[in-house]
Design goal:
It is a single chain. This protein is mainly beta. The protein has a domain at 283-412: Immunoglobulin-like, CATH 2.60.40. Helix content is 11%, strand content 31%. Strands 5-4-13-8-9 form a five-stranded mixed β-sheet. Strands 6, 7, 10, 11 and 12 form a five-stranded antiparallel β-sheet that branches. A hairpin with a 7-residue loop joins strand 17 (315-321) and strand 18 (329-330). The longest helix is centred in the first third of the chain and has 11 residues, at 10-20. The relative contact order is 0.14.
Length: 413
């Protein structure tokens, strides 16, 4: 399949993105040479609420398409018909701005031992931006689509594949009607090419793979995308039914036409075999101190700052440990509070001279807390019950707090 093949052109694309972002991002290790991947250069990115475009991660598999925005259209297919020009998307429907924490489903993959997947992300594949665009609900209802029960919206990207696979992702129609938008601006600027220019689907609170870039088609269906579901050549279901599925080693995921929940954690608890990466799991990252230089203790307290998020759910609690997880202390959530976007947290630490390991862990409103580690490959079924996240063959949806570690040397001035 095309999604398994290396892509030589990615290196030039990465170099151009790094240059355009002026050092705010850096390439991420991808031994299989399949993806264009850059992540935030500095941990301090995660001590601020808004992520500048220059520091926002990028991840995609195919080459970026050549774009003529004046002639670009989004086809409406399946249970509705038509086509939307960019002018219609921008000017014939309401405009909204959505705060959204975009996280790659492979974020944290580098925790897995043995290694899995191709892109060895640490924690750097996440960022929060304001996305401006048109509510999907207004477009659907304008075309007499408003009954969500049991139906799905499939988005197809216009990025060309090296193989015969079509980049298509399906989300429940109920989610599309709730809060999704067709985004054409990012932080008040025209959507950058590497982020999906001229338009992408934006699915708040869900892993980035669902927010299809270079959007070319929206299709209302009675099921998720399966092979042969689209009226176009090539294979249709790889990116929904095979890639981005969470499963043990050596398992071939079963194809589902529908599932009852988009909550990834609920699927992991047994609702779906080989869960789909939809709603983001609870996660946190310490941004400051950044661990890159010693902390000069000019005062008696060092402020620890970071971010925490939980997809469609709210972050209920954030804890910080300064001794590698032996003891935990409640931190304070503060700053902007938007559905689908991360929260800032801070903790006043009375630091003593020496080397300290800082760790954060978040708990969502449903009581689900970041686990301490990734399980062994053979411990899939017991993982969540033993404070571990299941090792999985693709390395998806990992949220153990281990990668948020910062080694800090405190010195007195």
């Amino acid at each position: 399949m095309g999604i398994e093949q290396p892509r030589a052109s990615r290196h030039d694309e990465i170099d151009a993105i790094v240059e355009s972002k002026a050092g705010g991002v850096t390439p991420t290790r991808d031994d299989a040479d399949k993806y264009t991947v850059v992540g935030a250069t500095s941990r301090r990115t995660f001590s601020n609420w808004l992520t500048p475009i220059e520091e926002h991660f990028v991840c995609h598999r195919n080459d970026m398409p050549a774009i003529d925005a004046d002639s670009w259209t989004v086809s409406l297919t399946g249970e509705f018909e038509g086509a939307l020009s960019m002018a219609a998307i921008k000017h014939e429907y309401p405009t909204v701005a959505v705060a959204h924490t975009m996280e790659c489903a492979g974020n944290g993959r580098g925790q897995h031992r043995p290694e899995t997947g191709s892109v060895q992300w640490g924690f750097e594949a996440a960022g929060t931006a304001f996305w401006t665009g048109t509510p999907v609900s207004t477009i659907l209802r304008d075309h007499d689509v408003d009954a969500a029960a049991g139906r799905w919206l499939t988005a197809v990207g216009g990025d060309p594949s090296d193989g015969d696979d079509v980049f298509a992702r399906s989300i429940p129609l109920s989610k599309a009607l709730d809060d999704c938008i067709l985004a054409y601006e990012m932080n008040g600027q025209p959507l950058p090419r590497e982020h999906g220019y001229p338009v992408r689907l934006l699915v708040p609170g869900w892993y980035g793979v669902n927010s299809v870039k270079w959007l070319e088609e929206l299709r209302v269906m009675d099921s998720m995308v399966v092979e042969g579901a689209l009226e176009r050549p090539g294979t249709h279901a790889d990116w929904q039914q095979r890639a981005y599925r969470i499963h043990p080693r050596g398992t071939e995921p079963e194809v589902h036409e529908t599932v009852e929940t988009g909550d990834t954690w609920e699927q992991l608890e047994g609702a779906v075999d080989s869960p789909y990466t939809f709603d983001s799991n609870v996660m946190s990252v310490i941004g400051s101190p950044d661990g890159e230089s010693p902390v000069a203790r000019s005062e008696s307290v060092v402020e620890v700052r970071g971010v925490a998020w939980a997809g469609d759910d709210e972050v209920e609690r954030i804890e910080v440990s300064t001794d590698g997880g032996a003891q935990w202390h409640d931190a304070e959530l503060y700053g902007p509070s938007y559905a689908g976007a991360w929260r800032l947290f801070r903790y006043d630490w009375r630091a003593q001279p020496g080397t300290h390991t800082l760790v954060s862990r978040a708990t969502d409103e449903l009581g689900r807390r970041q686990p301490a580690r990734i399980s062994d490959p053979d411990d899939w079924r017991e993982a969540l019950e033993t404070d571990a996240f299941p090792w999985n063959e693709g390395g998806y949806a990992a949220n153990a707090y281990e990668p948020n570690r910062v080694e800090v040397v405190v010195r007195s001035e």
